[in-house]
Design brief:
- This protein is an alpha/beta fold.
- It is built from twelve helices and twelve strands.
- The mean pLDDT is 95.
């Protein structure tokens, strides 16, 4: 039996639909079921001159022994709310975007799917529809009741985030010793269980320049981060820090760790995207399901052009398949 993976096609006006179509030409270690509007996908394939045959999914109880032949994409039809044009987002489709996620979550919970891969969505478009939405990670946490931890992976580099989609001015107030203890414990546990790292070594960044310079550039390191690390060490988790974020990513320093915990989004992700943009994969830890996604956004400027690179989505599907097969 091969894993059955749900792939949400994401923001319909973005590059998600054409990246999903690109999966049809790839050899993948899973049965991939794309969730999206069939006419949208067919129209985008025609506009891009892609020879892709859209197939109906097999009944949930039937599992193929091999992936679909090259050139075929299995599509479970969920209709758009309003017509969509590549590169022109419409808040009228915000609930359609969330419906794709809801269907995938329900399918994983019911055992129809073994994992979930999400094509990019645009937070602003969903918010413009009057729906409070800060991102896939937070939405999945809310819907599943887990404690989501965002981690990006490229090669041997793994970077997790203590906070995710927050304004920079809100990060300090969001940090607490309890939060850092919980996030780091989840990271250590899942590095061991999902990534087969027997005794994870985790580098923890400081929040401020030079990790606070002994309190002269901020006190969060002394007041929040250091106490959390003491608790983690007492529980048997190997952590080092708080370390200056401008030196922790030096290769000789990274060589001594299995993952880095950054305090906020743009402290950790620029490094990993520089190291492997279009190859990196976002993995959501701490949930009762497997979820991965590409490392980029909706790229409205590329939508419908045929120039979007599917490499990161391919890597996301491959990693989700590996994690699902192990479990």
């Amino acid at each position: 039996m091969i894993p059955r993976i749900a792939l949400t096609s994401g923001e319909p006006a973005g590059i998600g639909p054409e990246l999903c179509l690109a999966m049809a030409g790839r050899s993948l270690p899973c049965e991939l079921v794309c969730l999206g509007d069939r006419a949208l996908l067919a129209g985008r394939a025609q506009a891009l001159h892609l020879d892709v045959r859209l197939r109906e999914p097999a009944p949930p109880g039937l599992r193929p022994a091999a992936p679909r032949p090259a050139g075929e994409l299995t599509v479970e039809h969920l209709p758009l709310a309003v017509p969509s044009v590549a590169g022109r987002p419409d808040p009228g489709n915000a609930r359609y975007v969330l419906a794709l996620l809801d269907r995938a979550i329900e399918g994983v919970r019911a055992g129809e799917f073994d994992a979930l891969v999400t094509a990019p969505v645009h937070k602003g478009v969903v918010n413009d529809a009057g729906i409070a939405f800060t991102g896939h990670t937070e939405y999945l946490q809310q819907r599943t009741g887990g404690r989501a931890v965002m981690m990006l992976v490229t090669g041997k580099l793994r970077v997790a985030l203590a906070t995710t989609h927050l304004p920079l001015r809100a990060v300090s107030a969001a940090l607490s010793a309890d939060l850092l203890y919980e996030v780091t414990a989840i990271l250590a546990r899942e590095l061991s269980s999902r990534f087969r790292v027997s005794a994870p070594r985790i580098a923890v960044c400081g929040l401020n320049p030079h990790a606070g310079e002994g309190g002269h550039l901020g006190d969060e390191e002394q007041r929040i981060i250091a106490p959390a690390l003491e608790r983690l060490r007492a529980s048997g988790i190997q952590v080092s820090g708080p370390l200056p974020a401008d030196t922790v990513f030096v290769p000789r320093v990274l060589a001594g760790f299995d993952a880095v915990l950054a305090m906020y989004h743009d402290q950790g992700l620029p490094v990993i995207k520089h190291a492997g943009f279009e190859q990196a994969v976002n993995v959501t830890l701490g949930l009762p399901l497997i979820r991965t996604s590409p490392d980029h956004g909706t790229a409205f400027d590329l939508a419908g052009s045929g120039r979007a690179d599917p490499s990161s989505l391919i890597a996301a599907v491959q990693l989700a398949s590996t994690l699902a097969a192990q479990r």
